[in-house]
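Sequence, please.
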């Protein structure tokens, strides 16, 4: 008898990193609270979870990260202040942040890598599949990125990640997959069976130019693999090592993402995301475009 594939209800958002690429901005403020136009990065990720049918968001936090939990909590004083001043639309906007989803958090007391951060959520996730979202990456597409991966997992029972084609000279900045097209899938030539993953290879060593984007849906077996993973350089446990073990079990798929990936985790990507979202903003877009056109570059 085939095993019933469980529904994906939970998402883990690791937010315990130190954000060193944005210092000094991130000395006291979490990187995930940096704002693209008028929303912190973490809110884009939570909105993607909600649009993807996730019911329970689990933050893996660290010291100096309480602003993230506060952002998704109610703020009765602020709401009644806004209501009394006749700003009920703003009061509703503040009230509805994170509406429709349950939040939990757990701590990663030392930033020992993404794999370690995910492992910290094992007890809250339990024995069920779950999504992982890196909130410094904003994914923009008609079908929310996480929803697409949830659908792949629920149809196949294999872990699923999004990948994008990256220029050869940039493969050393990504986790790169070694994969072959998955025959006869509902996702056509977008879906690949992963044989192996290599973390930040040189252009010569890279098995492909398919780079991991920062969205995953994984079966709970990953926790057992991560628990057995030996720390690498800097004492870190990489998520990639756990993904490799799933690939060895023939339980890992990669889907070529057909939306836009905004890597806001470094300054260049963050500035580009700000310009892209600024131009699309219904209120600011027109004037912002005129401003950019007027720049003498
Ligand atoms: P990054 O590597 O982009 O974040 O990890 P970082 O380490 O905070 O940033 P830099 O490189 O020092 O500038 C992607 C996500 O994983 C989380 C981060 O908070 C970020 O949202 N993360 C990373 C953890 O939660 N724990 C870790 O040990 C590492």
């Amino acid at each position: 008898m085939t095993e019933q594939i469980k529904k994906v209800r939970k998402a883990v958002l690791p937010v315990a990193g130190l954000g060193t690429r944005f210092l000094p901005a991130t000395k006291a403020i979490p990187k995930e609270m940096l704002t693209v136009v008028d929303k912190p990065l973490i809110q884009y990720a939570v909105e993607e979870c909600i649009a993807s049918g996730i019911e329970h968001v689990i933050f893996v936090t660290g010291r100096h990260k309480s602003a993230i939990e506060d952002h998704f909590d109610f703020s009765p004083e602020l709401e009644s202040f806004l209501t009394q001043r006749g700003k009920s639309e703003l009061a509703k906007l503040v009230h509805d942040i994170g509406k429709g989803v349950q939040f939990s958090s757990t701590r990663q007391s030392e930033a020992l890598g993404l794999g370690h951060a995910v492992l910290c959520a094992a007890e809250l996730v339990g024995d069920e599949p779950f999504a992982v979202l890196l909130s410094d990456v904003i994914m923009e597409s008609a079908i929310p990125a996480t929803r697409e991966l949830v659908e792949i997992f629920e149809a196949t029972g294999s872990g699923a990640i999004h990948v994008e084609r990256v220029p050869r000279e940039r493969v050393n900045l990504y986790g790169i997959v070694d994969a072959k097209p998955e025959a006869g899938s509902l996702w056509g030539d977008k879906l690949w069976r992963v044989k192996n993953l290599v973390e930040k290879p040189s252009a010569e060593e890279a098995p492909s130019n398919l780079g991991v984007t920062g969205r995953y849906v994984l079966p709970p077996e990953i926790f057992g693999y991560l628990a057995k993973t030996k720390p690498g350089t800097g004492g870190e446990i990489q998520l990639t090592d756990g993904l490799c073990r799933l690939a060895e079990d023939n339980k890992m798929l990669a889907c070529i993402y057909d939306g836009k990936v905004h890597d806001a985790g470094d300054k260049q990507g963050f500035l580009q995301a700000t310009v892209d979202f600024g131009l699309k903003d219904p209120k600011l877009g027109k004037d912002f475009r005129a401003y950019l056109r007027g720049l003498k570059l």
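The first helix runs from residue 41 to 51.
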